[in-house]
Write a structure and sequence with these properties.
This protein is an alpha+beta fold. Helices cover 40% and strands 21% of the residues.
């Protein structure tokens, strides 16, 4: 959904807990509505998908919150992509398989390795 002032004003509080509504136009940006009815702008950043609070609505305007979200998201991106380390395909595959092994089941990792070896020569 595209967040607008009218839409945010009309968001209903959930019966329990909090509900986050994300914006379609700016990835990771949204508004969180608590059971008490308070509305807070948030942005999801980083590999951990950490939610960062930007300000409360209506104290913080929607346009200001979007600008802050872009600034926060920009801080997580490399400042100069040309300085990023270059990897060979084999090194990238090795890192991928290692990282996958940290968060996936053994069988999943084995299947990824099988498919990579089948479709790519490394």
């Amino acid at each position: 959904m595209r967040l607008t002032d009218l839409l945010i004003k009309n968001l209903k509080a959930p019966e329990r807990g909090q509900k986050t509504y994300f914006d379609d136009t700016l990835r990771g940006f949204g508004v969180r509505v608590s059971q008490g009815g308070s509305k807070t702008f948030v942005v999801m950043v980083g590999r951990d998908r950490k939610l960062t609070t930007l300000g409360r609505y209506p104290d913080t305007a929607l346009a200001d919150a979007r600008r802050r979200a872009k600034t926060v998201q920009g801080a997580y991106k490399p400042s100069d992509p040309s300085k990023a380390p270059s990897l060979t395909f084999s090194e990238a595959v090795g890192r991928f398989v290692f990282d996958t092994g940290l968060r996936a089941k053994k069988r999943t990792v084995e299947e990824y390795e099988r498919l990579l070896k089948r479709h790519f020569a490394f």
